[in-house]
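Researcher: Hi, I'm a grad student and pretty new to this. My advisor asked me to get structures for two proteins we've been looking at. I'm not sure of the right format, so I'll just paste the first sequence and hope you can take it from there.
Model: That works fine. Here's the first sequence with its structure tokens right after it:
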Amino acid sequence: MAVYKIIGTFGNSFSNSDQINLFVNSGTIVPSTTTKFQLEQGIFVTVNSGVTITAYTSNGTCANISDAVDVPNTPVPEPTEEFDCNTTNLNLTINNGTEGDNVTGTAYLPDGSLGTITGFSPSFYSTSVTTYRAFITIPSGYSNTGDGEQVIGCDGTATVTPITSSHLYYTYEACDGSSDVDVLLESAPFSSIERRIDYSTSKYYTYSGDAGTSANSNPIKSLDLISGTGCPPLPTYYYIAVRECTDYNSNGALEDRVVRSLTDITGWSHVLIPRYSGDTGAVYEKYGSLNQSSLATAYEDGTFDLPSVDLDNTASSNGITVASLEKTTCP
């Protein structure tokens, strides 16, 4: 067996936390699971020379998408240099900003390309803070690429311009019933039912009241104003709990998960959840007696053995209909 480096390329619909399972047509592969984020940066795998590696997503919006690559007969040398804040020619800049605005900055990598900053701490400019930490994605070509660290935190300084105003913080209520948030604005919301969105979580919020010149105990968020007022109508999903017909993950147990669809699937006895394009063998059987409310909670919380699955997204990503996922027996 030999060590090879593999790198994945993904579309915008994938999330960094999407789980990627790896298979080979001969022998074994180590590791056999990774994430979209790690594979996009590049990971080292141990396999036999000349095999075909197949990767597919097992959860998320783009679940059950797969692709394959043939392994050459000559392994790629593993890098020895570690990427850290002292890496030569790593150039981090924290931009100056205005109190309450989102912190911004840039990180240029040693090869001159613009690196990826996943976030800052703190995330908002404050007149009492001069040092801000940027979380920089570890690029490919380093010994700690894709080893679970994923990012490193490096510090930089910025000058913050204060805002003087009589009423800056406003409280917004989450449409899904989760925690309220406080939003720092330069002017009052235009409407008592103004609608905003947090694009990082796809959650909607509506204005619910003033919080004053300082925030309440609610988390401070930066929300984008969008068209419409009030909370948008929520789609009606149907949920069932299902269990593997066969030990597909070869871990000695029949594992369970929650699936949902805009189609009424509550009468289904079995469901196909393809692991890759064209898969017809991964059939699950319905089990349990939880009500729809409990299943909806379990779907969001991920309390079952396996990640929850949206059958509408699964069918769409495989170019098939939701109805074709209904089965009547285990294979």
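Researcher: Oh nice, that was easy. Here's the second one.
Model: And its structure:
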Amino acid sequence: MKVDLNLLKSELNRLTDIKYLKKELNRIAGEVKKFDVHRHLSPQARERLEALEERFRALLKNLQELQKQVDANLERLLKTMRSLRGKPVRKKKAKRTTKKAAKKTTKKASGTKKKASRA
């Protein structure tokens, strides 16, 4: 297989020419804008396309909401991490219950037992 280097060189020059690429891109964009999808579709295909577009819009909306939630959670996490930077992380000790609090809890529990036995 023989490769024509001059042909290859001219093709590379054509593809790397920015003005030519812009002109081709504008031409293709113009063709795409002029193309009417609905004129070339059958009624069933139109209905299906509309349903797909609706699903796409709903999916996009859900995606945007999820992105907002992720951003908010990430911001909250970063804020927490920035506030903890340089500070040693200590575990909090569990509070001991006082005798009064223990008695209140016991009284409440025993009161419900009495009510249950009466019924």
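Researcher: Is there anything I should tell my advisor about the second?
Model: You could mention this: The radius of gyration is 35 Å.
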